[in-house]
Write a structure and sequence with these properties.
Layout (H helix, E strand, L loop, with lengths): L2 H6 L1 E3 L5 E3 L3 E2 L2 E6 L2 E4 H9 L6 E5 L12 E5 H10 L24
Antiparallel strand pairs: 1-2, 3-4, 4-5, 6-7
Amino acid sequence: LTIEQIKKRCEIKPNGCWEWKGARAAGYGRVKLGRQVVSVHRVVAQMVYGIKRGQDACHRCDNKICCNPEHLFVGTRSDNMKDAARKGRLPMAGGRAAWTAFLDRSWLML
């Protein structure tokens, strides 16, 4: 699989995004490599930038199906989550809704 082969399976948008037209899962483009099904944007980032175990292929464009290497950067999971939070893409629950909240008896419907 080459970058050109991947690009041919995309729709090129005016903003430069290469939108994957093949299989998808959880909103991300997916492709089969050997016996493994992997994220297309990660394959592209691996080919262009090289990704080590524990690193993410992150989207500058915030388009999950984009696999334009110019729209991708390599970062840690923490970098990816901070980027998403900074751009308002994560539901940042606070108070009772936060997953770290402790239950209080007054919240329970007994």
